[in-house]
Structures are given as structure tokens and as C-alpha cells.
Amino acid sequence: MSDPTDQELSDRYRAALEAERAALREASAQTGEARKPVTLDQTMVGRLSRMDAMQGQAMAAAVEARRHGRIRAIDAALARMGEDEFGWCGDCGGFIGFGRLDSDATAMRCISCAS
Questions:
Q1: Residue 13: other Cβ atoms inside 10 A
Q2: Single pTM value for the model
Q3: Residue 93 DSSP symbol
């Protein structure tokens, strides 16, 4: 089987990457309130409730950091599409493979080079 063209790769993966990026941005917008700093007004909540709130805020911030990392990876993959480099290993230059790209379309290396 011959290697796919850059257009075939773009046609196969662009819509899914753009949809995932939109969903991540929407989730980020919807969870903004959970990431706001916890107020330390002791008349409002007790110490344990405040600690729970701070832990929840820290977990929401960690999820947001992972979400932004994924958005950056998607943006990089879409940029590689524009440069006709998407789907090609950044190390050896070979085709990454449909199986790997189907699993993670942001992959930048083939299985051999990633190992």
C-alpha cells in the first residue's frame, strides 16, 4: 500500500481535531467558575469546607492545564497540516501510520521512533 497524500491525511483527521479542540474550549469555558480562587472568609465556611473547596479548585486547575496541553497539541497538528508535515514522523520522515494516528491524531513520531 502506498503512503497517503497530505490532502488525504488532512481530509481524514482535520474535522475530528477541530471538533475536539472546540469541545475542549467549551469545557474550559464551562468550568471557569470551579478554577476561581477560594475565598478565605471564615464567617462563610469552616476550615474543612474551605480545604475541600481549595482541593476542588486545585483539581479543576490541574484538569484545565491538561486540557490546554491537549489544545496546544491539536493546534500543532493542525499547523503541521498547513505545512504538509502532518502524518509524517518528525524523526525519520516516514509515515506515522493510520493505526497510530487513529489512536492519537496529534502523534508526531512513528512507533519505531517513539519507542
A1: 20
A2: 0.81
A3: -
